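REVIEWER CHECKLIST
Item 1: Sequence provided? yes
Item 2: Single chain? yes
Item 3: Sequence as submitted:
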Amino acid sequence: MSDLEEARKFFDGDFYATRTTGIIIEEVDEYFARCSFEVTRNHQNAYGGVMGGAIFTLADYTFAVSSNFKQPQTVSITSQINFIGMAKGKKLIAESHLIKDGRSTCLYEINITDELGTKVAMATFTGMKLTSK
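Item 4: Structure as written out by the authors:
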């Protein structure tokens, strides 16, 4: 089984992200994940833009995948999101990047764009490792 298949199988247990929001894992590697969802009416606010909560869910799930796949169990202890611009495309993509991997905590940056390259949001997550490697 490939790493991608293994990650998809494990994180499929996150029903809210995978079933309600429709997020899929596109790529996974050590300390990295790329996740996305196709924008539907269920993701939109009254003005037709993507709801901030849907964008945050994508960032949160991407953090979870990158900080937990083949890593100690990690939970978010703080997070911050900055909304940069409205998505112009029909798909949102989040990519995680490890900033710092400490003994008991970690820091990730998650960048969210649409498939056209429009910058939509940037989030940071501090995680606490609940178990050791």
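Item 5: Key structural point noted by reviewer: The mean pLDDT is 95.
Item 6: Recommendation: ____
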